[in-house]
Structure to design on (211 residues):
């Protein structure tokens, strides 16, 4: 793993398959979850770039816990990173929860090669009426959403009732929560679930038309 210009990079740096990931609302780009996913994808021959939104960079610099930036600033942060990386046409963009949601809002606009959302926040917990799906009805970018069956931001039953674009594939992690982590009593470990996540994302990325 290498760091430069506020980015974290995993992989050889020479792969034609490149995934850019943003973090969730509360965890940084070097959280255990994103680190394991990034290293796993690198092991599959996929280069990974991670970055942080301005509020998280400020938290890192000053040690102050801050709420996420407003949506326009989050979108602008995604566009700026993609511009710095030479444009989105060869990139698969996405991330954990908030990071993936904002990526889904800019994916068509920037012409991303693909989109990966790890634990999509379809609605706030216990507020199923506050859906964040309007833009997903007409999404053109090939997309993969990996969701836990116990995710309070969108369960299998709820998501099955949503009108979503045919460009979206959904893969379910059995007994996974919003971080795709299963309960101990499920008989599955967190490590096993993350390996499943990596396998799903790697297969999706490699299935996309040329980089």
């Amino acid at each position: 793993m290498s760091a430069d210009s506020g980015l974290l990079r995993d992989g050889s740096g020479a792969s034609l398959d490149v995934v850019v990931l943003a973090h969730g609302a509360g965890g940084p780009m070097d959280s255990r979850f994103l680190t394991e996913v990034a290293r796993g994808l690198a092991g599959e021959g996929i280069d990974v770039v991670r970055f942080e939104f301005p509020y998280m960079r400020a938290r890192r610099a000053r040690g102050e816990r801050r709420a996420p930036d407003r949506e326009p600033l989050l979108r602008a942060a995604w566009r700026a990173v993609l511009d710095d990386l030479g444009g989105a046409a060869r990139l698969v963009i996405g991330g954990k929860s908030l990071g993936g949601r904002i990526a889904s809002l800019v994916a068509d606009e920037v012409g991303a090669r693909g989109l990966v959302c790890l634990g999509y926040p379809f609605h706030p917990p216990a507020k199923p009426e506050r859906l964040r799906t309007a833009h997903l009805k007409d999404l053109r970018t090939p997309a993969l959403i990996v969701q836990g069956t116990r995710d309070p931001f969108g369960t299998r039953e709820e998501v099955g009732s949503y009108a979503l674009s045919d460009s979206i594939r959904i893969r379910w992690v059995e007994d996974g929560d919003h971080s795709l982590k299963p309960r101990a009593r499920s008989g599955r470990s967190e490590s096993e679930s993350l390996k499943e996540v990596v396998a799903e994302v790697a297969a999706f990325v490699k299935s996309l038309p040329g980089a």
Remarks:
- The first strand starts at residue 2 and ends at 4.
- The helical segments are 32-43, 54-62, 71-84, 98-110, 156-159, 190-207.
